[in-house]
Amino acid sequence: MLQEESDLSLIIAQIVQKLKGSNLYAQLERQAWASLQRPEIKLESLKEDIKEFFKISGWEKKLQNAVYSELSVYPLPNHPAAPPEHLKEPLVYMRKAQGSWEKRILKSLNSMCTELSIPLARKRPVVEQKELLNKWNEMGTDEPDLSLFRPVYAPKDFLEVLINLRNPNYENGDSLSFRTHLGLIQVPLKVKDIPELKECFIELGLNTGQLGIDDSTQVPPELFENEHVRIGQKVLAEQDSAAAQQYVRQGSPTALRAELWALILNISSQPEDVLYYEQLKTNVIQHDLLVDSLIYKDVKLTASNDDYYFVFEDYLYQVLLCFSRDTSVLSHFAYNSASPPKSYIRGKLGLEDYAVFYPPNGVIPFHGFSMYVAPLCFLYHEPYKLYQIFREMYVRFFFRLHSISSHPSGIVSLCLLFETLLQTYLPQLFYHLREIGAQPLRISFKWMVRAFSGYLATDQLLLLWDRILGYNSLEILAVLAAAVFAFRAVNLMEVTSLAAAEAVLADLSTLKVMPLLQIFLFATVT
Known about the structure:
By secondary structure, this protein is an all-alpha fold. Helices cover 54% and strands 2% of the residues. The longest helix has 25 residues, at 92-116. The mean pLDDT is 86. This is TBC1 domain family member 19 isoform X2.
């Protein structure tokens, strides 16, 4: 009991400290001072009267949403004596593996820098600045020569690193249950089984209405859809983040999705947010970074060739270039197993006083990175709002898909969950694919690392991302990957090579996400 009270006090102290530096705190302070002029505020009951004023004026709800947002993002506090790196990642071998992987990425970036004789950063000449500013809204028409640039790494390179992960404590005499895991991921992490997943995703059950199933043309809208939309409008009117998060577990109506996601992520566009975005834009105009070329290259290789997303090419450049300059993103490294890369002023290597984070946000883009932004372009048409939503989605969820950690939503756990589900509940299929050299994870990894962006039809992808936000978890990605294999199991049992298996699973654009998830979790698997 005492431990629980101590933990709660620590959580409260952390949240208060975080909010004190926020814009909301300054606004609340201003409102409190302004309320003193009101006749209903009495000196003898000052505290209660100001609380009542906050409640009536809606500021209490904004504060609640901010606290809820912090609780959703920030991990629970560790033991007070635990070192700071435990907050990033409690397992030493995971931290070491992430450190080694980062060194490989930096080596690749530096070698490209040396080969091409291009500096990591340079100030643009005034003429070039004016030129970029004039074509800011049509950067997609620009065709820079990117033939010499290559992505720093691709998902398949990252998979090889994960396959080689080992817990040194399990080298000798590992447990029997772990030895029976025949997948590629060979680390002993606790992942959920089907009964636990059913309990976790209870709102996806067969008896609960779902957008993605119960809004089809065969189902009369008065049975579910009309009422669900009405409740959604009420949630938005209440401006309650927790209620919105619960609501989208059953899917979000298309017309309400943009507002609901912004409410869940606690994003309300203020004039200072627009100003901040403009400052980032100015930084892009003034300075050219090597990672800019990597962003251009990635958009050209992925989104520009996608039937759904090619029209958003300009938006993608704007958002990703600004993202690379945003130093506020660095704060997520407090709970991310990764560490931001450092660059040193020439001739001052190793001297911390001359070190800067590079890129300024600490995130080096990889092949497919732009696909985290592309689906959001369907929902948000003002670049500053699109930018805010993407940044919050990244620091809550997407960073976990390309960093090595033991977190339940981390990519290592997702891979292990996927393999465990297949091996346990579809053993014949799993063993068949393994025997022919077509390990299922080699096929599904690219889906999960991109959160299925670029693989599913956009309407289905947004229904999937509704549930990621609703459950504040990425575990549903592994469940869907297993469900796809279950759905195509008959065809996969007939293939005799990895290439043939990949051909069977090459096109996911016709799949309906919610029926697949429901059937896999609640209908066929026991």
